[in-house]
Amino acid sequence: MSLLIAPLALGAGVAWLEARHRLRPASPLWLMARDWKVSSSADVLRVAGVLEISNPHPRMEVFVPELRVEPTLLGRADLSSLTVTTRIQADHPDEEPRADGYWAAYIVKGLKTTRARVTIEIRGGAALELVDTLWVDVQWMNYGPFGRLSRRQGVPVAVRGPRPLRADQAQWQSGDGCTVLPVKTHLLGPLDDPIEVLRRYAAPLLQPGDVLTIGETPLAVIQGRYQHPSEVEPGMLARLACRVFHPTSSLATACGMQTLIDVVGPTRVIAAWIGGLLMKLVSIPGGFYRLAGDQARLIDDITGTTPPYDQTIVLGPERSASFCAEASEALGVDVAIVDVNDLGRVKVLASSSGCDEPLLQRALKPNPAGNANQRTPLVLVRSGRG
User: Rounded to an integer, what is the distance from CA 19 to the centroid of its chain?
Assistant: First the structure.
């Protein structure tokens, strides 16, 4: 009888842990930025777009009592002389908009959607030319059966971007039996289509046999796979498990670890932690990351990527293999998603069929894209020395 008690107790504990994790308070609402456009005149830069709030739950009704936007300007120099004004107008399907712009508390019913129209005007004369990105920080409240939850989501709007390179302007770098070309883009985000980004900035440079790579983090932010740490509520497991990781690891903070738990579940994290410890005892390093899954290695905690995403936690991309196949078909060259760092580590997360991955290992080992704020998420690799 005693032999049955331990497995039953373990099973009950695992079931309780998973149930507690899955039934924790959460709002079903989703916020998406859509149809953002930039226009300019001699002394005014105008950015306008829509924030769409959807409720996929069939029955739950959720209040949105507060919604505000805090814009942040990013650019190449001091922007303090510029003035910014923001206006939010509710665009509910069943209410007339208020002329004064006040956001009145609104109920988003099950399977319904509402919208907010945002207009941001930037004034300041010649200094407007220094602005390249507007970071739209949306702070909104969800109120319902789950309690009162603060939500926060940032969206970058590209104001200006680099002109796509022409083939005669490209400055290729020599590598090990290959040449590489880091390709600049604007600051990427959820308003972008990833294949259109590749087409816009790289298509004029492509030749048959080339391999076009995109970093895993830039693709992830295009897919919207990032969140502000204020949206993460670390539990006891996250606070305990994070303490055993090296301080430079993205899992060494409670929010970073909780992000992984939210993706793979607490049971897998506990199993990976125990399994990783046992593997370490027999001199097998990296056991936790192998057992916890790819996202354990791909999560970037704050400071882990380029501003303004340095204030967010970024997951790894999803649907990587299908993206590479679609992009390769659209562009006519091989495409790969890569994770590269300054230590010479190159990981090919996914690639199109027939891609020369040993070539990528040689070409990307020096990390030609850089790990700072170069904004070169694309690297074009060409076999031979050009």
Answer: 28
